[in-house]
Batch of 3 targets.
Target 1
Amino acid sequence: MAHESRTDTSFADALEEFKRRGSNLLVVGPPSDRARSAICRRLLGDASGRTRRRLFVETDGTASCLDDCDGAITPETTRLVTRPTPTRSAAATVDSSTTSTESPESTAGGVARRHVAERGLATLACAINEEIGVFTDRADELDPAELRLCFDSLTPLVAENDSVAVRRFLHTITGRVRSCRGMAHYHLAAGRRDDVVVELAPAFDAVVELRIDGDRPEQRWHVPDRDLHTDWLPL
């Protein structure tokens, strides 16, 4: 008879705690659409038999995670905040602290869409906070893990801002997610031991590594508060 290992039990306990009290996860590894879709489908949650409120934040414009969620897609359940990645020449000629253009909300494909043209992190944080507020206002009180946030890429933010500003931004967003016991994951195209990951990891509850082994996407979790490091697991 197979026995569940202590690591397996601790990992299951950690996941249950994340769902109960809210969590923020940093997802790292080399770019892979297949691995990315697999982890997003898992972390966005199963909508069968329950309501999910999903907020997508897109910053790199290369791929959308919207296709990775199941269940009903309506403005009441699915919202999207987009922010363009500036070209190097634009960044040199435009002061992001003074540009403040925002497109009005629109709805397409059942998704409430909001475009933030300003590149300042404070404006993006404000937009994310307000979108979460739309969900909390409509639901009165969200159930644990009802809110799921997918942040498609921290890479542009890291490239455009100093580490202090990025950490301040993350502190604001992760705190807002925890305040309503939501679950958020943030993609960063970097290795777990890269300097940028080591620097940002303390802002998160866990770091999730992705890889493709042969043709199979896999995940490996690191939960520092529990001194927990899993083996590579199938996605």
Target 2
Amino acid sequence: MVKQAIVNSSPIIFLSKAGLMNLLKLAGDEVFVPDAVVQEINQRGANDVSVRAIAAAEWLQVVDVPTPDPLIQAWDLGKGETAVLTHALHYAGMFAVIDDGLGRKCAETFEIPLYGTLGLVLKAKRLGMIAEARPVLHQLRKYGMYLKDATLEQALALIGE
């Protein structure tokens, strides 16, 4: 069975800034991004690294999510999160790749399988794709990824760092 994932803007932005867009492939054999997320990222301008990373990632498939699910819409999330979770809700087993706290709670409520940028970095370390997770996570924090010190240390302990 093909594992599928759909990704929100923040993982794309953080990972592209770190030169690690390929880590999104760890979320699924097929990785999708809603058109709403692409539009959001494109507002950053043509020279933005995230805009260029989406264009260069031939494996990243853009999908249109025309109608937000009313159950998801009731959570009052951003357009990107709403599109990601609506799509994942309607395709059983699809993973949502999302960092936003409220978006993650919404996914958990609807039992949508979930990854975050942190989880992808930990998985990359376990698979030997990166030598150490700590410097990668510190770099991602510099690029704006919010991660409490306690959460960072707990996560690193899980992989023996």
Target 3
Amino acid sequence: MRIKAIAGRIINQLRHDKRTMALVLLAPIIVLTLVYLVFDAANDAYTISVIKVPKAVIQEIKSNDDYDMTVQRDSKAEAIDAVRSQKAIAAVSVNSDCSKVKIYVDGSNASDAKKVRGVIEQSVGQVVKDDAKAAMEDVKDEMAANPMAPKVDLDYVEPDVTTDYIYGQEDGSFFDDYGAPLIGIIIFFFVFLIAGINFLNERKDGTLERILSTPTKRGEIISGYVLGFGSLAIMQTIIVSLFVVYVLGMIMHGNILLVLLVNLLTALCALTLGMLMSTLASSEFQMIQFIPVIILPQVFLCGLFKLTGIWDVLGHCVPLYYTTDALTDVMVRGCGIDDIWLDLIVIGGCALLFMAMNAAFLKRQRSV
């Protein structure tokens, strides 16, 4: 009977907590659906810029069975610029007899670079084999027509392939591919959770209510909390960033100060968003329940995975997209502030927006 009474009390509590019931029952379905749709729409389409390439090789590249390859003809300068600006994943030059192949590739994602290199090398190799087979048939026909003709030996020669990595490196690891975005994601996640729970405790303990009863302005209250919680976020950001680069040895082609700037703005954005979401929660458990609703969708849409169509458009609507874009540009591609200024403005703008929304909630709470 005691077990039944305890179980019944818990069930009644959960039954009356509609927010918890909705998150527990619906959140897993939403997340799994999002995972299915995002991965089902994964991008297997690549653009290759060709400089001087025989038509037969181009046809082989286009007709491969594994990936959707778009081929565009450019000059050498245009082709390399297309790779640098991420308009093409690779540029390729092949001489007339396919004996020499030069590939310029964007290796910021080692997996994608390996796939594209494989298609190019396989396509050139297939053309060389077809040409050798056709030449052998011609020799056989000539020998049949003239048995006294001297015998000719035809050897298959493997194409000489050289590759220049515009970004990244040939022996890049899985961590190098995803490490830069993951730094921002991890910082965003922990700062969001810590700030949200701590601000929730300020409300539950009555501390915030007592501050609101004083003449302190709402902007001063929010700024004070941001500075207070932000001190911990700053320490975490600096430690994580330096640890990943200098201890784990992650690839780093840009300025470490820019990495710290991006991560600090990301932490500020997560901090203000966590404070905002805490106003909708009544317990730490409910705060944690916001993770599958607020954090996980951003992880899938932020650019960690290659997306196309509507998913790519939706990705531009989440703050983490601009964090991962900026970190990848700086750490993998060696870009400067001139290339990531828009990302910085968007991340900082989101933080200011969340601060303004926090102030609006405080106004409503003060008037109650």
